[in-house]
TrEMBL record:
It is an enzyme of class 6 (ligase). Signal peptide: none annotated. This is Phosphoribosylformylglycinamidine synthase subunit PurL. Belongs to the FGAMS family. GO terms for biological process: 'de novo' IMP biosynthetic process. Its EC number is 6.3.5.3. The keyword Magnesium applies. Coiled coil: none annotated. Residues 26-65 form the Phosphoribosylformylglycinamidine synthase linker domain. Mg(2+) 2 binds at D134, D294. Residues 225-389, 674-767 form the PurM-like C-terminal domain.
Length: 791
């Protein structure tokens, strides 16, 4: 078989002709990459299918061609890490039974930014679908979801339209598949006006010896490639390439075709079917004999070449054997379409009948969804080449390793400029707080701010209690808390193991200092986890940045990578999963640097988890980690810039505040103190200090039980600087009977806790000399702030 048609020879063509061909055929290659493909890699004119395939596999989304070098500094291994950031999801051991068998958490973190900006519902829904399939393909049972969302200015009608579509899409997929929402984040910022961020985290569980891999195992020559799921259509064609270029408003309608179409109910059925097959394979001791991969970016092409090449093989795909939704689809579209709800197995021939019967008969795919089925569409080969045949003609023939390698760039970058302080060393600018009486109105403005106010109107859109594993819902603790092994199918000795999950990123900090902003994203995920009583064991990241071809934007990404790597190293947390999303840029500019961080925490017993609600009157309230008057990057600073959101004495355009400092040693010591004091039952409640600072943290701790507090500020100076800065820290309610033991433990850890005051039986929030307001007044502002603005 030879190439006889659909070949485009670059030889003798002008650059303008080549560029017109690439654009007209939706091929995600630059001019130089197209020439490299013909003249260096293939050394012959490529077919249209090869152009399309290399455009997808060589995109930023698939090949990490600009980021690979910088991601190498991340720590991806650790004593309990079973699988670092290498395959579709990371795996970490969190428990062992009496027989010594390990039980693991599978963690995946992905973004679906460009699709969600164009078609919000479908973009967000398919983002969830692809994320949970990554868990499934490792052999895991999906047990939790989290989403971290960024939108433009909340007063914009388009922002509210995108927000509603995205949230509906997440709920429209997550709820039907029966996976609870455990955690999430939400920020509104003008920097995301034309490029929202939709990042999703999924957690799964599995027994360690039942882990599946996304590559063909040793001895796989002659294995069948089995395509499972929905019939292939043209939806999502070019999605990976589309996600690797700037958003262009003029191509809005054209780009809609690059967004996949979700089918949550078929997705649920396939999750159940895949889980049941994993059990069958485990019972036969055959789980290690298959490769299993989700069809995401690049569809059949990328799944088949990656499952083959990662195992050291090649593959041959027969396009005519692919079940499809309609006749007449071009072969390269069938090959690279990103149709959802599909999987691929690399199966030994003796297991192939079992897999086909399992999906087609036991789970009746053809009857459940029109055109769905499981089919053999190709083979794993000992030859290291990737070949695709359609209509008796070879349309792709290339070294498999060249396809998966893509292109590698060492992009030039410019380090972000350092802020120069106009103040002498050791001094800070005066906090623009006006008279203490004005701080009460400032507090209420903060409580009602869209980036601080209650997220209940968001969380209530999601199913939070399906599966019966969620012990503490999002919003009640600094992390959602899960008991993943609490059913009778797991050994009794691990049923009390708890997990926590939190997501973090602050665009205000990252805009000011992309390195420090990335550090603080990791630090806040750490402090949130510790404040829930859990030990941080792993993080995942979704690194969302602008156009890497611009040295200034590439410099922001490099600084962010350094920050994440530094913080994870200093806090001893491995990165086990994540992705990179670049080209988050439009004609109006780039998004703020956005390292979206998720942290997984572990509790020996989920019943020992901490919440943020004050529990009893007359308990001492302590502060950990001092306030330094560093209010830069805070929501207060944002309100100050807006001017009209604060009382008259706050002048518009005042000097930006100094940014927080990070002392890893103090943060680690405070974290260890909280965990040890919590295990000794000395801590009744804990809340980390983040958006809104100490003032907002104290208020939030009173809302759950209407139990008040009376505190005084332990330092002279402007109270606003003490109350509203967002440097890392903790507020703790301590059992009075254990106060002396807590202070002794703190001294042992080298921590200096500051006594702020006590909880009180009255429903009031009192800061001596600053404010004295009812809990009801504060809570009403907090509860209504976001909801009112979304109406």
């Amino acid at each position: 078989m030879q190439f006889t048609r659909n070949v485009f020879d670059l030889q003798g063509r002008s650059d303008q002709e080549i560029e017109a061909f690439l654009e007209g055929s939706s091929i995600g290659l630059t001019l130089q990459e197209a020439k490299q493909l013909q003249f260096s890699i293939l050394k012959r004119p490529p077919s249209v299918a090869e152009f399309v395939l290399f455009g997808i596999e060589g995109s930023e989304h698939c090949s990490y061609k600009s980021s690979r070098e910088h991601l190498s500094q991340f720590i991806t291994q650790g004593p309990e890490v079973v699988l670092g950031a290498k395959e579709d999801a990371g795996v970490i051991r969190v428990a062992r039974d009496r027989q010594g068998r390990g039980y693991c958490v599978v963690m995946s973190h992905e973004s679906h930014n460009h699709p969600s900006q164009i078609v919000p519902y479908e973009g967000a829904a398919t983002g969830v679908g692809g994320n949970v399939r990554d868990i499934c393909c490792m052999g895991g049972e999906v047990v939790a979801l989290a989403d971290d969302l960024r939108f433009g200015a909340i007063e914009s009608p388009r922002t509210r339209w995108i927000y509603d579509g995205v949230v509906s899409g997440i709920a429209g997929y997550g709820n039907p598949i029966g996976v609870p929402s455990l955690a999430g984040g939400l920020q509104f910022d003008r920097g995301y006006q034309d490029n929202c961020l939709v990042t999703v985290v999924s957690l799964g569980i599995l027994r360690e010896d039942h882990l599946l891999h996304s590559y063909a195992p040793p001895g796989a020559d002659g294995y069948d490639l089995i395509l499972v799921g929905k019939p292939t259509d043209s939806s999502g064609f070019g999605g990976a390439s589309f996600a690797s270029f700037d958003l262009d408003a003029e191509q809005h309608e054209q780009n809609k075709g690059a967004v996949q179409e979700p089918n949550a109910f078929l997705g649920r059925h396939l999750l159940q079917a895949a889980g049941a097959l994993s059990e069958k394979l485990a019972e036969r001791g055959a789980h290690h004999r298959v490769g299993f991969k989700d069809l995401g970016a690049g569809g059949i092409a990328c799944a088949s070449v990656e499952i083959a090449d990662t195992g050291g093989y090649g593959a041959e795909v027969m396009i005519d054997q692919v079940h499809r939704d309609a006749p007449g689809l071009p072969a390269h579209v069938v090959l690279c379409s990103e149709t959802q709800e599909r999987y691929m197995y690399a199966s030994p021939p003796d297991l192939t009948p079992l897999i086909l019967e399992h999906y087609n008969q036991d789970f009746a795919l053809p009857q459940v969804s029109r055109g769905a089925e499981a089919r053999v569409i190709g083979k794993i080969t000992d030859s290291p080449r990737f070949r695709v045949i359609a209509g008796g003609e070879v349309i792709v023939d290339a070294p498999a390793c060249e396809v998966t390698r893509g292109f590698l760039y060492n992009r030039p970058f410019v380090d972000p400029p350092l802020e120069e302080s106009p103040f002498p060393p050791g001094t800070l600018p005066a906090f623009p707080g006006g008279q203490p009486g004005g701080l009460e109105e400032t507090l209420l403005a903060l409580l009602g701010h869209e980036n601080i106010a209650s997220r209940k109107c968001l969380y209530d859109r999601y199913d939070k209690q399906v599966q019966g594993r969620v012990m503490v819902e999002a919003g009640l603790s600094d992390s959602g808390i899960l008991a993943p092994f609490n059913s009778g199918e797991y050994p009794e000795e691990i049923r009390q193991v708890g997990l926590t999950l939190t997501t973090d990123q602050n665009p205000r900090m990252n805009r000011r200092d992309p390195h420090l902003g990335a550090v603080l994203a990791v630090v806040e995920s750490y402090t949130n986890t510790v404040a829930s009583g859990a030990r941080p064991v792993a993080i995942s990241d979704c690194l969302c940045y602008g156009n890497p071809e611009k040295p200034q934007q590439m410099g922001l990404f490099v600084a962010g990578c350094r920050g994440v790597a530094e913080a994870c190293r200093e806090l001893s947390i491995p990165v086990i999963a994540g992705n990179v999303s670049l080209y988050n840029e439009s004609l109006s500019g780039s998004i703020p640097p956005s390292p979206m961080i998720a942290c997984l925490g572990q509790l020996e017993d989920y019943r020992d988890a901490l919440t943020q609600n004050f529990l009893r009157a007359d308990s001492p309230i302590y502060l950990l980690l001092e306030r330094e008057g560093r209010w830069g990057g805070s929501v207060f600073e944002e309100l100050l810039a807006e001017g009209d959101a604060l009382p008259g004495e706050f002048s518009r355009g005042s000097l930006a505040g100094p940014l927080p400092r990070v002392d890893y040693g103090k943060i680690r010591a405070a974290g260890e103190l909280i965990l040890e004091a919590s295990r000794a039952a000395l801590v009744r409640a804990c809340h980390d200090i983040s958006e809104g600072g100490l003032g907002v943290a104290l208020c939030e701790m009173t809302f759950g039980r209407s139990l008040g507090c009376a505190v005084s500020l332990p330092v002279p100076g402007d109270p606003g600087a003490f109350l509203f800065e967002e440097s890392p820290g903790f507020v703790l309610e301590i059992d009075p009977a254990g106060e002396e033991a807590f202070c002794a433990l703190a001294r042992k850890k080298g921590v200096e806790p500051v006594l702020l005051g006590r909880t009180i039986g009255e429903p009031r929030i009192i800061v001596e000399g600053v404010w004295d307001m009812t809990i009801e007044r504060a809570r009403t502002r907090w509860e209504q702030g976001l909801m009112e603005k979304l109406l």
